[in-house]
């Protein structure tokens, strides 16, 4: 029995000495000290040992276990020390190196302009409503008093998915969807991305953003529209800003107008920025056409309203004096970090 124990211990010590990693030590422990290990099997065979020899054999087994456990723990500590040293070597920080610069992002010029417009209108009691960019032709054209083959469709040539579904050319469909709900009165703005088949240049893009507003209530007049847009211009461009309305035509409003604001560079005296006119065009507007109200289930004899639409990029270009719309989409950090 003594010779058998010595053979087991010698074999275990040789394997421990030859081990190269912690995992192999675990396997050795299981092989010799586990529930089915070699030493455990000897303990199980103690019943075959003569009673007078059992104490001596038990002592030999315990000494063998102590020897192996001590050697396993010694090798484990050695491996763990090497692993810590290797980890420390890899994670060493050279304090003489320059620190990494933390680059903090910020909002895009479009986002800044949009938040400011939303702040102005929310302050006047409007709610912000969004809708789908992929829209039915009915909501994008017909419900806005633009029937099939209407010339206005040529001006808003868009991308068709099929004959009934388009990429919206304006955010006015959101207004129609809100009117159809029949929850009156309505005071809302609808910001969002729109699409038109335009060539890319300094002032045009096939994808851009609009903010359209709508008010529906009893006894709404053109005077309410003028007062609202005058206040909007003052808050956006300064207290000295004035607005001028020029007659225009939109299929979904009647009467309609284009709105100019006094040039905030020259104060209306005329400069290169306003091309010498003293005025800058900013948006289109008008009283909601009775046909549009009827198609949305609203009685034009009882309710009236006004609508307006402004390009978000146009506001950003004017407010920050950017001369090329393409700069907003080129993602040039040198340009964007100015805002």
The end-to-end span amounts to 87 Å
What characteristic shape results from the CA principal axes? elongated
Total helical segments:
12
Structural class: alpha+beta
Strand order of the largest sheet: 1-5-6-10-9-8-7
How would you describe the overall organization of this protein?
By secondary structure, the protein is α+β, with helices and mostly antiparallel strands. The protein folds into 2 domains: about 90 residues; about 230 residues, 2-Layer Sandwich (BirA Bifunctional Protein, domain 2). Helices cover about 40% and strands about 20% of the residues. Strands 1-5-6-10-9-8-7 form a 7-stranded mixed β-sheet, sandwiched between helices. Strands 2-4-3 form a 3-stranded antiparallel β-sheet. α1 packs parallel to α4 and α5 packs across α11.
Summarize the model shown.
With 339 residues, the chain is α+β, with helices and mostly antiparallel strands. The protein has helices at 2-18, 22-33, 38-44, 54-90, 109-123, 137-140, 152-155, 172-180, 222-237, 290-295, 312-319, 333-336; strands at 127-128, 134-136, 160-162, 165-167, 186-195, 207-217, 243-250, 253-262, 279-288, 304-311. The mean pLDDT is 85.
Task: Note the main attributes of this structure.
7-stranded mixed β-sheet; alpha+beta; BirA Bifunctional Protein, domain 2; 12 helices; elongated; 339 residues
């Amino acid at each position: 029995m003594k010779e058998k124990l010595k053979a087991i211990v010698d074999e275990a010590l040789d394997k421990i000495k030859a081990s190269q990693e912690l995992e192999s030590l675990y396997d050795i422990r299981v092989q010799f000290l586990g529930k089915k290990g070699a030493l455990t099997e000897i303990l199980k065979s103690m019943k075959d040992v003569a009673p007078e020899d059992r104490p001596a054999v038990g002592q030999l087994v315990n000494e063998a276990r102590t020897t192996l456990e001590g050697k396993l723990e010694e090798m484990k500590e050695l491996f763990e020390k090497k692993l810590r040293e290797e980890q420390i070597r890899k994670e060493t920080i050279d304090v003489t190196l320059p620190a990494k610069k933390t680059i903090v992002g910020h909002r895009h010029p479009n986002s800044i302009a949009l938040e400011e417009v939303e702040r102005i209108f929310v302050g006047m009691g409007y709610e912000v409503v969004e809708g789908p960019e992929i829209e039915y032709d009915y909501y994008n054209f017909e419900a806005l008093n633009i029937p099939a083959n209407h010339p206005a469709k040529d001006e808003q040539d868009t991308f068709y998915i099929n004959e009934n579904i388009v990429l919206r050319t304006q955010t006015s469909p959101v207004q129609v969807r809100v009117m159809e709900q029949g929850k009156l009165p309505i005071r809302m703005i609808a910001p969002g991305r729109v699409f038109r088949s335009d060539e890319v240049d300094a002032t045009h893009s096939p994808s851009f953003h609009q903010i359209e507003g709508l008010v529906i209530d009893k006894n709404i007049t053109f005077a309410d529209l003028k007062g609202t847009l005058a206040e909007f211009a003052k808050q956006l461009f300064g207290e000295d800003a004035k607005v001028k309305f020029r007659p225009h035509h939109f299929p979904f409003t009647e009467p309609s107008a284009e709105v100019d604001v006094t040039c905030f560079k020259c104060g209306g005296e005329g400069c290169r920025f306003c091309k010498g006119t003293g005025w800058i065009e900013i948006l289109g507007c008008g009283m909601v056409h009775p046909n549009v109200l009827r198609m949305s289930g609203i009685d034009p004899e009882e309710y009236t309203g006004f609508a307006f639409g402004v390009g978000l990029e146009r506001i950003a270009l004017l407010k920050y004096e950017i001369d090329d719309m393409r700069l907003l989409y080129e993602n040039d950090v040198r340009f964007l970090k100015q805002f």
